[in-house]
Write a structure and sequence with these properties.
The complex is a heterodimer. By secondary structure, chain A is mainly β. Chain A contains no helices and two strands.
Chain lengths: 14, 257
């Protein structure tokens, strides 16, 4: 099935 | 020192109910802008951003920026002790490791205060880029909650697909499959019953229903929910908090490899 991505993949740490 | 007073204390109770199942511990940031929070769930799949603007409170004083680390389950326990009609005050003095919640009954005949220990929480702040979304759906929040709940009995994931036909929510599982299509409907008596779909590009994304269902805990806060989607980006599910701000939930998609 499709892979669950994490939020940190899209939004960079400040 | 930091002090805020909210006459409609039930809003704060509802806000806590909306985030406590998703996030265990979180830092509340207090500044002249307002009372805010950004936190991820333990698996870093979802992120919640809360903003309650200072102008929305009857009283708001923040002498200098302050971060208060709180266990949200404990904070929710304390706020549950406030009556729905109570006025809530939150106070923290500089240099102390506690926060005080004060509840006043509307007739001022009962005043309670609860003191809670603050925590040191290592949390990373993420930069959320401003995005132009390919599709934005505004719909009754109760309808969205119903759809998420119904599809959960069929499968674990929901495929949300926006086309010029409308928005389709689909789930599939061992017992079968379900498709729910909502069409734009702006010709309603009450604006809160409307479904409005703004689409620049057709977009289809897949999400874990468990998180979507957790987001719908915010349903009592707002009659309408806004769902913003772009290909290969986290979805944003937003509930307004009555003239004060918002709760935004971001959920990373599932992507076929």
């Amino acid at each position: 099935g499709p892979k669950q991505y994490t939020i940190t993949k899209f939004f960079q740490k400040l | 020192m930091f002090e805020l007073r909210l006459v409609q204390g039930s809003l704060l109770k509802k806000v806590l109910e909306s985030i406590k199942d998703l996030v265990n511990d979180a830092n509340f940031d207090c500044s002249s802008t307002g009372f805010s929070l950004q936190a991820m769930d333990s698996s870093h799949v979802a992120l919640v951003a809360l903003l309650l603007r200072s102008e929305g409170f009857e009283h708001y004083r923040c002498d200098r920026n302050l971060t208060m680390g709180m266990n949200l389950a404990n904070m929710a326990k304390m706020l549950k002790c406030a009556g729905n009609d109570d006025i809530i005050t939150i106070k923290a003095d500089d240099g102390t490791d506690t926060v005080t919640f004060m509840f006043e009954s509307p007739s001022q005949d009962k005043i309670s205060d609860f003191e809670m220990k603050l925590m040191d929480i290592d949390s990373e702040h993420l930069g959320i880029p401003e995005a132009e979304y390919e599709a934005i759906i505004r719909m009754p929040s109760a309808e969205f909650a119903r759809i998420c709940r119904d599809l959960s009995s069929i499968g674990d994931t929901v495929v949300i697909s926006v086309t010029k036909e409308g928005v389709r929510f689909s789930a599939r599982g061992d017992i079968g499959a379900a498709n729910i299509v909502c069409r734009q409907n702006a010709t309603v008596d009450k604006p809160e019953d409307a479904t409005i779909i703004e689409m620049q590009e057709p977009v289809t994304l897949t999400f874990a229903l468990r998180y979507m269902n957790s987001f719908t805990k915010a349903t009592p806060l707002a009659e309408q929910v806004t769902i913003s989607m772009s290909s290969d980006l986290p979805v944003v599910v937003e509930y307004k908090v009555a003239g004060m701000g918002y709760i935004r939930y971001y959920l990373a998609p599932k992507i076929e490899e």
